[in-house]
Amino acid sequence: MSEPLLQVQDLVKEFPGRRSLLDWLRRRPARPVRALDGVSFQLRAGEVIALVGESGCGKTTTGNLLMGLLPPSGGRVVLDGQEVGRLSRRGLQRLRRSAQMVFQDPYESLNPRMTVGDIVAEPLQVHGVGGSRAGVRERVEAALTSAGMTPVSAYLKRYPYELSGGQRQRVVIAAALALEPALLIADEPVSMLDVSIRAEILNLLGALAKQRGIAVVMITHDLSTVAAYADRIAVMYLGRIVEHGPTRQVLANPRHPYAQALLSVVPIPDPAARRRPVILGGETPDPSRIPSGCRFHPRCPLAFDRCPIVDPPLFPVGPDHQAACLLVENG
Amino acid sequence: MSGRGGYLLRKIGWALVTVLVVVTFNFLLFRVLPGDPAKSGMRDPRLNPAAVETLRARFGLDKEVFLDLESGGNPFDTQFTAYLGALSRGDLGTSYAFRDQEVSTLIGQALVNTLWLVLPSQFLAILLGAGLGLFAAWRRGRPLDLAALTFSLFMWSLPTFFLGIILLVAGANWFGLPTSGRITIGNDFASFWDLAWDVGRHLLLPTLTLTLVLLGEYMLIMRSSVLDVFGEDYILTARAKGLSTYRIIRHHALRNAMLPMVTLIALNLGFTVSGAIQVEAVYSWPGLGALTVNAVADRDYPVLQGAFLLIAVAVVIANLAAELIYGWLDPRVSEG
Amino acid sequence: MTALIEVTAPPALEPSRRTWRRFLQHRMGLVGAAMLLVALVVAVFAPLIAPYDPYESVRVNILDIYQKPSAAHLLGTDDGGKDVLSSLIYGARVSLVVGFAAAAIALVIGGLIGIVAGYRGGWVGSLLMRITDFFLVIPDLALQIVLVAIIGPSLGTIIVVIGALGWTTTARLVRSQTLTVRERKYVMRARAIGAGDAHILRRHILPAVLPLMLANMVLVISLAILSESTLAFLGLGDPTVISWGQMLNFAFGRGAVSAGAWWALLPPGFAIVWVVLGTTLLGTALEDALNPRLKRHHLEAPGGDVARDRPVLDIPPPALDVAAPILRVRELAVEFDSPDGPLRAVDGISFDLRRGETLGLVGESGCGKTTTVLGILRLLPPGGRIVGGQVWFDGEDLLSLDGRDLRAFRWTRLSLVFQGAMNAMNPVRTIGDQIAEAIRLHAPDTSKAEANRRAGELLERVGIGRRRANEYPHTYSGGMRQRAMIALALACEPDVIIADEPTTALDVMIQAQILELLGGIARDFGMGIILVTHDLGVVAQVCDRVVVMYGGGLAEENEAAPLFATPQHPYTQQLLLSFPDLAHPDRPLRGIPGSPPRLDAMPPGCRFAPRCPYVFDRCHVERPPEYPTAVGGRATCFLLDPDEETRR
């Protein structure tokens, strides 16, 4: 078994809070916002993990920390043996070659004044890769081909406004592939695309993982598509992973009440489907006011007396499958 | 610091800092002045060194400028603190041109006259400008709007003093209005109303000029504010509810359009001052502007210094007032 | 609703060409450019144009002063006996030189400060903005007067002083633009790639900021010229050069008014107006071209939204019995104005809504579903027009309602819920106030207290406590804002609510809550609901019947169960196949090749033909009409044509 390419250990990220005048007069300290409160997982080359959750769960912050865009407040991210976050400026530069990011908004991710060729060449130019003009051009064409934008010559001189949403996202992916990274982080790559176009992008990302051994972290809120490309899924809530395991298993047999509730309300395009939705009341609490004990307990339909007191770690519930709930403490 | 209380403190704090910077700047600026009697006296070769020293001491020029760390006494016994001290007592020095007049008296009188000019003009300009701007936005693209835009553009391109000259010539030739000063000199005023009438006749053209100039600007600001509001989602909601266009404007658009208007009026206070200075110059209206311009011609530096300080501080205060009004009007204000 | 239909076709030219085209269309800008050009020519060729040299000292005779215009002196003479026209011509040089030089200084200072403040942010940025604000607050003319008075009025001083005080607007503009670009996703992507500040500034920020700076510079020139002439008029001009302000200073101060010498006063003044007007027109046009304000407005269009010449359909009005559908839409067609002519966003859609029924209106972007409901609600934006069809609501012809009748109809019979984005409700009025407004508008006898009480009740009903009625929209979370919109929509107890993508931007759990709420309300109040969405999962969950739209028309319509079980139209089939299904996670994801047709490039014949797996020749040529299907419902596909079967 090869060494995991990416290791995330007890990652914590806090943002400073704000104080109102009243707070200051009363000498109340500003409450920090704990966007991430101890996240751990591993990823091997060629594996795809989906970080799933609703807004405020910390999945986007995780992506930013993996890229080194923000320093962690605690814990570590180790990529290819190097600790991201302890890296110097130069080290971070080199990191960029191993880890690349695909953002959510294909309409905003491309500079409208640059051609497709320029956009895909930019990472090469920034890192001085490719040597000559011809070398750069070769790599650009290779990246575009990998992203499915063929014939390449038809696209090199086009501007973003001439492309559809799906095509733009492919350009973003091509730009990410130009440096042949080992890790790709995709933050909601298809949420702004029409449903009928999402498949091609998601399938592309899945194929890149399988065929080229790129490790992919997929950040998404869409549970209905994860099974198609993700090997593993991690369900996040308020800065923690509450359930973690192979995709099929977690979808078929979720053990954490939040995961269960979430899966029960995802709309299914079949009016005949029999389901009992568990609709949670209220909304996700503010990350500056994380509940005591199990952070899910105020909304949990199965909470009992120990829940507000004990903060459960991840308990094993199956092969490689864990859930952070006192109800499954004993498996 | 966030929250409405924080907003208040922040704005007041910055206003205080600005005033302090203005005062210091004013102090420094006039240190480089030529024409200071003590200094010119000191350059006179006929004076013996002892006399020069006495002169220097008398004008406090023998002290350090900012901080005195060398002599054994109070480190704050400097020119700057002397200046601050004098300021706090309201002592702005004595005029060079009017040898027996205190600067504070002069600018005090001038301030009152300027207020007589600026306040009505500002008020009228805001009222008319907001009204016209609203109408122009409502009837966007139609003749009224185009006329209003053309008018504004023209007013913008016309220097205020030139407009003043034109109106002065027209007013004097066609309406026999007086062309300078505040009152007709040499007249005996039988009653208060006679005096008021006379002052009013003198005030008419300057006010008209200043109002017209400001009107163009405010109309543009209001129009653009209102047009921005018309594109907001809640206007669609209001229309979907069944509100008539009049009601939509009155209960939704107006309040929201006033917010940026307040901010922009605050930013344009400098424009008001500039306009007032020019109008007073053309009509010889004895306000702060005229005082400033005349002080330049007379090299009357204490008056110039005092007038500039007063003008700058007045604008800072007016700006602060506008920001506080904004804070009161907009419930979203809270973040830094 | 901020994601309203993309009415205009995506631009057919690259960005910089588009900008030029916009500029050229701005006639006023061209006029301004011409005016400025004239002034430049006059200034440059002054020695050739002017009849006399005003800098030459001549012996002057008292009779020469304030001479009226004559053949020898086209604009008469001034207080010194000099030719006014020549002074006027040479004066152009000073104004333009000061204008350009001072503006250049202001541009450099303002540009630097703006870029650093916008790019760096943090305390450096804050400090720079404070400094900018300081200079903005201090009245510039007063400061200019003081500085020039102290330093001495030479041309150089004046240029430096005006420039050193005139950078504030440029700085603000540059900072705001830099900030905008810095926050753009493509800059974040560049940073994620590993680009350093230099690269980002060079390739992303500067190309975006520079054009705006140059446009702004033109406006700063106009300000500089105004400043110079004002200073000169007030006696602070350089006495060794002739400028227009100087001319006015002398004329005004030396009795031109009493001498009636209008020729000494008017020309220099109007010359200033000419140049300032020209630069302002040019500068405004440039700024508009670079940053076009694409804001649409949501008020009623002056011309009305229903075309008068629309074809009258030969359909009898529906019967008014209880079992009849409450809403009937027949052949509705909507067009939008665009620079390339009218575009048809909806091209003949028909459907019914029965009382108490929940109807799903489904389709992808550009299919026309939002336009359809906006048309029904008579809320089309300006430029939109209903050009065909008929809409009956409870027997009433909705398209012939106008003015007061339409307003009375609104909200009481048919209301709207759209995405509860931040500004769907007025941010400066309380939620309760806005709900009460709707109540009192349609029941004017209701007292304020009563209306507020009702508003509180409605908020309770949707799950927001009545105590929160006095709060402002910005204190509500996204889910709560959506609930508030629903409470508002219920205010006048309508028969039908149209919900346009009400849950699209919300988390899946909140979406479930909102859908449950809507379902409950439909049950309790017997309300009909039209749910506009792209999410087939949502439709399957809550809708009784479904209308699938594609390319501005109907693809298929049926009750939910048969539609999902046996879809008849190839698009419906493909759409269902491409919709991820959590109940069958092993199914590979598939999409539909190609993309939905653009409004300005509609295929002739069947709209779906280019992407249809079963397409044959007829599909490219003719548009299929509606055919009834074997499972109830109808679909627009030639495959359902009974004759077609026999033909093939």
Tell me about this structure.
The complex is a heterotrimer of chains A (331), B (336) and C (648). Chain A has 331 residues and is an alpha/beta fold. Chain A is 32% helix and 21% strand. Chain A has eleven helices and twelve strands. In chain A, helix 4 packs across helix 5, helix 4 packs parallel to helix 7 and helix 7 (165-177) packs parallel to helix 8 (195-212). The longest helix of chain A has 18 residues, at 195-212. The two termini of chain A are 26 Å apart. In chain B, helix 1 packs antiparallel against helix 13 (301-329) and helix 2 runs antiparallel to helix 3 (49-58). Chain B is built from 13 helices and no strands. The mean pLDDT of chain B is 82. Chain B is an all-alpha fold and 336 residues long. With 648 residues, chain C is an alpha/beta fold. Chain C contains 23 helices and twelve strands. Chain C has helices spanning 15-25, 27-44, 46-49, 84-120, 122-137, 140-151, 155-165, 168-183, 185-193, 197-236, 244-253, 262-290, 369-376, 403-409, 431-442, 448-461, 478-490, 508-525, 536-542, 560-565, 570-578, 617-621, 642-647, and strands at 327-336, 343-353, 358-362, 384-393, 396-397, 414-418, 496-500, 528-533, 545-550, 553-559, 627-628, 634-635. Chains A and B meet through helix 1 of A and helix 1 of B.
Roughly what fraction of the amino acids of chain B lie in strands? under 5%
The strand line-up of the biggest sheet of chain C is 6-7-8-3-9-10-12-11
Summed over residues and divided by their number, the pLDDT of chain B gives a mean of 82
**What is the quaternary state of this protein?**
heterotrimer
Q: How much helix, percentage-wise, in residues of chain C? A: 40-55%
CA(first)-CA(last) distance of chain C? 46 Å
Q: How many β-strand stretches of chain B?
A: 0
Query: In this structure, how is the largest beta sheet of chain C organized?
Result: 8 strands, mixed
Helical residue percent band of chain B: over 70%
The biggest sheet of chain B amounts to:
none
Précis, in short:
In chain A, 32% of the residues lie in helices and 21% in strands. Chain A is built from 11 helices and 12 strands. The mean pLDDT of chain A is 88.
